[in-house]
From TrEMBL:
Keywords: Hydrolase, Membrane, Transmembrane, Transmembrane helix. This is PP2C family protein-serine/threonine phosphatase. One of its GO terms (molecular function) is protein serine/threonine phosphatase activity. Coiled coil: none annotated. The chain crosses the membrane at residues 20-38, 44-63, 70-89, 95-114. Its EC number is 3.1.3.16. InterPro entries: Bact_Sigma-Reg, PPM-type-like_dom_sf, PPM-type_phosphatase-like_dom. Residues 148-373 form the PPM-type phosphatase domain. It holds the Pfam family SpoIIE. It comes from the Bacteria.
Amino acid sequence: MSHSPFLLSAGRRTSEKTQAGIGVFLLSAALIVAVPVADLFTSPTIHLAHILVVPVALVAAFCGPRRGALAALLAVVALIAAGAERHMLSTENVLVQLGSLVALSGLLVFFGGLQERRRRELERLRRVSDTAQNVVLRALPHRAGPLSLAAEYRAAEVGTSVGGDLYAVARTAHATRVLIGDVRGHGLDSLSGTETVLGAFRAIAHRQEPLPELVADLEASVRWGLAEQLDEQPGDGVGERFATAAVVEIPDDEPYVRVVSCGHLPPLRIRDGGAQFLEVEQTSPPLGLGALADGPYTPATFDFAPGDRLLLYTDGVTEARDADGRFFPLRERAEAHAARRRPDALVESLTHDVLAHVAGRRDDDMALVALRREPADRAAPGRRARRA
């Protein structure tokens, strides 16, 4: 199982802040030491003592109250040393400067402590948020049966890692099942719906039942969960809470993929340098609106041979617009990256293309999941052992 990108990014943020704080402190300390040294070579009429408050302010703001107090102490020692060098330590001018430096440093350290406390509270809340969101949207395994997998997720709301788009993978005895979905809305407002859909899928996807019955059970569970949310949070009306979804089943020993589409976008199959949308003729209503269905769920079957890639995505990808209002050309870009055989390289390249297409202006969540059926000689070790 791969590590969560949310937790890895939190670790990188902490490391970068630590390194930046050390750099600021060392630079400020060098500036403080430079003041009495510079006084040895300047005219007696030139006073540099007022500069000492600048490094104290920088350290207190960026390095915390403890290092701020240390910088203030160093600044006071530097001012005393500068006054002693010029034999002016007992003069009224130096005493006023010394008193002002002590008073200003005390205030800077005090407010730096308040800022540090608030920063720690925000960081704690961010860690709690990242952990909670990681529980909702778990990292996908690199391998599932004969498949290699990779996923990429970008939330539209700043400061969040999960929104209304979702994906999940489950294994049965002889197949891999993948869910891709998009809950109505985006950002944190749709997170409760995302948790409902993912929780329902994880609870039943491992069952040894046909795909149509699985999706029927998923629909019933999601409809019940969304209705319960409606009772607790009466903001939307009946029928305004739903999720488009596609449930994909890939048998281990058959070169096929079965797709049940609940109002979701068609998967994109990449084969021999070309890309083709797998259009499902008989689609069903989105999850949560199953009462509108005309009949049972009917899966569509498509070829999926060793070496083929399957791309699942949400409308945050296909409806991404550039400055001229043009949609992102997913099929063309997928064909351009068809030589990237590994799923992780494929989703990374496509994500980069989407972000470049919109120039950083995204107003919807986006999710990409890439799967590749590995050749038989590259099957997972446990699978080869069972066959032997």
